């Protein structure tokens, strides 16, 4: 069982992740400068200086906010702290979408945090839809190398003309490079940024087995260091001018050239390491659902070995399944509070 996390892998990750931990040079804005309340009235609580905002869920309502503009490509980022303790059934979502404007043909890029029972970790899901491709979900799920309810961490969605990158702090955890075959499944219409907290009792935790327990309400999530970088546009006007001159050319070029748009070798190593250790589901490896993986999938054999044909990570149970690891000098075990779940390290289970 993964009760006794291995410090060796912990240190290993810290050093690999620290190597790429140059903070992005992005300016933050206040709540009023870039966002508007979406729902939840009194459960949406901006700080008096406007630099942070709390989203609460209680038995009456969740809450959410939305960027005041639509963006044609952009970098969307916030430092987020999730509710702690008993959080089963809760969903905190940080995502871009244009579902309000294009009901049947919407685009979407998601971070979804799925709460858990006490003592079990939050899980993170990322996803993408393009032009209403709702029957072609592209979900990936992960645990994290830290407890997201204990401190702020930065979550970032980068969406350019050519690629999408999801970052946790400065670690790219997922990259999708656009290709012809994806067609309109690649988001291409201007999107807004959304942040919400809501009751996902019917599915969020163990497929709906554990519901939101309102005796622990209110559940509080906090958003700080709000960042919006992109080309603000009116989506209708924008689409009408689609074939004309690109009004966003300068901004687009700026995004493409930015530091965070480049996955350096160090960042790629950190991404590999993260996915090797913390990814628990990938649609790319779910051959039951997709006998032919969607065109953007890059199948990495060493990674694929960890997954069953359902795309879920194989839970190893004994020596027969033991994988080979590079020995580490720091190798030692310790019981205790730093509950890094070692999704990838079978010897720890
Ligand atoms: C996995 O655990 C073993 C100890 O059982 C350790 O020696 C090894 O370094 C760990 N591997 C990784 C990748 O963390
Ligand atoms: C950060 O960005 C600002 C504005 O774009 C620029 O003036 C500044 O030089 C940058 N700082 C670093 C360390 O790159
Ligand atoms: C906001 O970002 C700055 C610069 O990266 C960082 O030092 C600070 O800790 C962040 N604040 C929170 C609450 O995450
Ligand atoms: C998006 O879907 C709509 C409806 O299915 C279709 O008419 C349209 O051509 C698609 N857009 C693109 C860019 O493929």
UniProtKB/TrEMBL annotation:
<comment type="similarity">
    <text>Belongs to the glycosyl hydrolase 16 family.</text>
</comment>
<keyword id="KW-0964">Secreted</keyword>
<protein>
    <recommendedName>
        <fullName>Xyloglucan endotransglucosylase/hydrolase</fullName>
        <ecNumber>2.4.1.207</ecNumber>
    </recommendedName>
</protein>
<dbReference type="GO" id="GO:0004553">
    <property type="term" value="F:hydrolase activity, hydrolyzing O-glycosyl compounds"/>
</dbReference>
<dbReference type="Pfam" id="PF06955">
    <property type="entry name" value="XET_C"/>
</dbReference>
<feature type="domain" description="GH16">
    <location>
        <begin position="22"/>
        <end position="223"/>
    </location>
</feature>
<keyword id="KW-0326">Glycosidase</keyword>
<dbReference type="InterPro" id="IPR010713">
    <property type="entry name" value="XET_C"/>
</dbReference>
<dbReference type="GO" id="GO:0010411">
    <property type="term" value="P:xyloglucan metabolic process"/>
</dbReference>
<keyword id="KW-1015">Disulfide bond</keyword>
<keyword id="KW-0808">Transferase</keyword>
<keyword id="KW-0378">Hydrolase</keyword>
<dbReference type="GO" id="GO:0042546">
    <property type="term" value="P:cell wall biogenesis"/>
</dbReference>
<dbReference type="InterPro" id="IPR013320">
    <property type="entry name" value="ConA-like_dom_sf"/>
</dbReference>
<dbReference type="InterPro" id="IPR000757">
    <property type="entry name" value="Beta-glucanase-like"/>
</dbReference>
<dbReference type="InterPro" id="IPR016455">
    <property type="entry name" value="XTH"/>
</dbReference>
<keyword id="KW-0961">Cell wall biogenesis/degradation</keyword>
<dbReference type="GO" id="GO:0048046">
    <property type="term" value="C:apoplast"/>
</dbReference>
<dbReference type="Pfam" id="PF00722">
    <property type="entry name" value="Glyco_hydro_16"/>
</dbReference>
<dbReference type="GO" id="GO:0016762">
    <property type="term" value="F:xyloglucan:xyloglucosyl transferase activity"/>
</dbReference>
<dbReference type="InterPro" id="IPR044791">
    <property type="entry name" value="Beta-glucanase/XTH"/>
</dbReference>
<feature type="active site" description="Proton donor">
    <location>
        <position position="112"/>
    </location>
</feature>
<feature type="compositionally biased region" description="Basic residues">
    <location>
        <begin position="320"/>
        <end position="333"/>
    </location>
</feature>
<comment type="function">
    <text>Catalyzes xyloglucan endohydrolysis (XEH) and/or endotransglycosylation (XET). Cleaves and religates xyloglucan polymers, an essential constituent of the primary cell wall, and thereby participates in cell wall construction of growing tissues.</text>
</comment>
<feature type="active site" description="Nucleophile">
    <location>
        <position position="108"/>
    </location>
</feature>
<keyword id="KW-0134">Cell wall</keyword>
<feature type="compositionally biased region" description="Polar residues">
    <location>
        <begin position="336"/>
        <end position="349"/>
    </location>
</feature>
<keyword id="KW-0732">Signal</keyword>
<keyword id="KW-0052">Apoplast</keyword>
<feature type="signal peptide">
    <location>
        <begin position="1"/>
        <end position="23"/>
    </location>
</feature>
<feature type="region of interest" description="Disordered">
    <location>
        <begin position="318"/>
        <end position="349"/>
    </location>
</feature>
<dbReference type="GO" id="GO:0071555">
    <property type="term" value="P:cell wall organization"/>
</dbReference>
């Amino acid at each position: 069982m993964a009760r006794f996390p291995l410090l060796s892998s912990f240190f290993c990750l810290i050093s690999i992740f620290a190597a790429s931990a140059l903070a992005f040079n992005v300016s933050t804005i206040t709540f009023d400068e870039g966002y508007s309340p979406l729902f939840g009235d009194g459960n949406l609580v901006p700080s008096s200086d406007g630099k942070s905002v709390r989203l609460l869920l209680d038995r009456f309502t969740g809450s959410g906010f939305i960027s005041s503009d639509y963006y044609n490509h952009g970098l969307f980022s916030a430092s987020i702290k999730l509710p702690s303790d008993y959080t089963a059934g809760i969903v905190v979502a940080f995502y871009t979408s244009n579902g309000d404007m294009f009901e049947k043909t919407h685009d979407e890029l998601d971070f979804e945090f799925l709460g858990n029972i006490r003592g079990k970790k939050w899980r993170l899901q990322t996803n993408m839809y393009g032009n209403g491709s709702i029957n072609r979900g592209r979900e990936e799920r992960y645990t994290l190398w830290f407890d997201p309810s204990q401190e702020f961490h930065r979550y970032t969605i980068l969406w350019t003309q050519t690629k999408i990158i999801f970052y946790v702090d400065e670690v790219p955890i997922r990259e999708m490079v656009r290709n012809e075959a994806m067609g309109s499944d690649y988001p291409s219409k201007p999107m807004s940024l959304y942040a919400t907290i809501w009751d996902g009792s019917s599915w969020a935790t163990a497929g709906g087995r554990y519901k939101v327990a309102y005796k622990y309400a209110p559940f509080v999530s906090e958003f700080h260091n709000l960042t919006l970088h992109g080309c603000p546009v009116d989506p209708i006007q924008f689409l009408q001018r689609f074939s004309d001159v690109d009004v966003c050319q300068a901004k687009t070029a700026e995004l493409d050239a930015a530091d965070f748009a480049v996955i350096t070798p160090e960042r790629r190593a950190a991404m590999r390491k993260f996915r090797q250790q913390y990814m628990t589901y990938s649609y790319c490896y779910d051959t039951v659902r997709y006998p032919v993986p969607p065109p953007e999938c890059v199948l990495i054999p060493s990674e694929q070995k960890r997954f069953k044909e359902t795309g879920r990570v194989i839970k190893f149970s004994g020596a027969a399944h033991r994988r080979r690891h590079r020995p580490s000098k720091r190798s030692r075990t310790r019981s205790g509070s730093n509950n890094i779940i070692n999704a990838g390290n079978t010897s720890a289970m």
